[in-house]
Write a structure and sequence with these properties.
Blueprint lengths: L2 H15 L5 H13 L1 H82 L4 E12 L4 E12 L2 E11 L6 E9 L4 E6 L4 E6 L7 H9 L10 H6 L1 E7 L2 E11 L2 E8 L5 E8 L3 E11 L15 E6 L1 H13 L1
Parallel strand pairs: 6-12
Antiparallel strand pairs: 1-2, 1-11, 2-3, 3-4, 4-5, 5-6, 7-8, 8-9, 9-10, 10-11
Bound molecules: zinc ion (ZN).
Length: 324
């Protein structure tokens, strides 16, 4: 065999087994192979080598595909887990919010219902202690008030105790009258004076007296689900009684708290605190059916009696009427 031809054939064989050679070249190669043992052996070797390589490549490719499939499966599982987790979390969040809403709504509604209930009672006493501390002026004032109410007649008994003030130290007076009336009798203990005061508006009403319970209560919020939900209510024990405490954080240094007696469902404490500047605490005590007729009758004897048109109050009333 021509050595020169063998070299050319061996050169062509790698392309031949990959089917990259032309029909004419194939014929030339096949003719040579049928006659040349050396080149035939070389072709056999090449083919075995090529098959091995192809097999390896196929395995690698399959491995790559498997890996990709595994990755996709993993991602799908991960995504599914994540979705279930978020779903579960949402269910928990909504359940917790639902419970909180029901709880808050129950408390607010109880307070509201209780107020409606006591508005029908014709005999009650309300004791109020209102303490104000002003840290800037270093003053402390305590206003005490006992309101006696029986069948439309009332007595508002006031007592003011001031510290760090020169004028008033212990100031005591009472207002007597009937609700929805423009007359009242004012009795001042220090000066032993009785003033029969008349004005052109009604001094007070039964609703006005009971306002001490709801003037600061966000009772109107009970129909607003978001406001009800946002209320921050905690349990508290104070002076042997159980309370719901609603806290309103007005700002970082300022908050208000309403303390609701769990038994009576009435607001018994109302705290306003501007930390380091001002603190006020109002305590309210309600007792039904203990007032007697004598409690609302003027009993002072030997006092100087004066009559008065309450000018300042008249101006306020005019202002209010104009405002409406
Ligand atoms: Zn050859």
């Amino acid at each position: 065999m021509n050595k020169q031809e063998c070299i050319i054939i061996k050169d062509l064989l790698p392309n031949y087994i990959k089917n990259l050679t032309s029909v004419e070249v194939n014929e030339f190669i096949e003719k040579h192979i049928s006659e040349c043992h050396s080149c035939k052996e070389f072709l056999g070797e090449l083919e075995r080598e090529y098959q091995k390589q192809t097999l390896k490549d196929n395995i690698l490719e399959q491995e790559e595909i498997d890996c990709l499939k595994k990755y996709r499966k993993k991602m799908r599982t991960l995504l599914l887990t994540l979705v279930s987790f978020i779903g579960g979390l949402l269910v928990i969040v909504f359940t917790v919010l639902g419970i909180k809403y029901k709880y808050n709504k129950y408390i607010i509604t109880s307070v509201y219902d209780k107020l409606n209930e006591i508005s029908n009672i014709e005999n009650f006493k309300i004791g109020i202690t209102d303490k104000h501390i002003n840290f800037e002026n270093n003053t402390e004032d305590t206003f005490s008030e006992n309101i006696y109410y029986i069948d439309g007649k009332y007595r508002e008994q006031h007592n003011e105790i001031n510290t760090n003030r020169e004028i008033l130290n212990n100031y005591e007076y009472s207002y007597y009258g009937e609700v929805d009336s423009n007359k009242r009798t004012e009795v001042y203990e220090e000066t032993k004076t009785i003033i029969n005061s008349t004005t052109n508006y009604n001094y007070t009403s039964k609703e006005g007296i009971l306002k001490v319970f709801d003037s600061s209560t966000p009772l109107s919020a009970r129909e607003n689900p978001l406001l009800v939900l946002s209320m921050n209510i905690r349990d508290e024990r104070y002076e042997g009684k159980e309370y719901y405490v609603i806290k309103f954080q007005n700002s970082k240094n300022s908050y208000r708290e309403l303390w609701i007696d769990k038994n009576s469902k009435l607001i018994e404490r109302n705290i306003n605190d501007i930390v380091g500047e001002f603190y006020s605490e109002k305590k309210i005590e309600y007792t039904p059916n203990i007032v007697k007729e004598d409690d609302v009758q003027v009993s002072a004897k030997g006092y100087t009696v004066k009559n008065k048109q309450a000018e300042v109050e008249k101006e306020i009333a005019e202002f209010m009427n104009n405002g409406l």
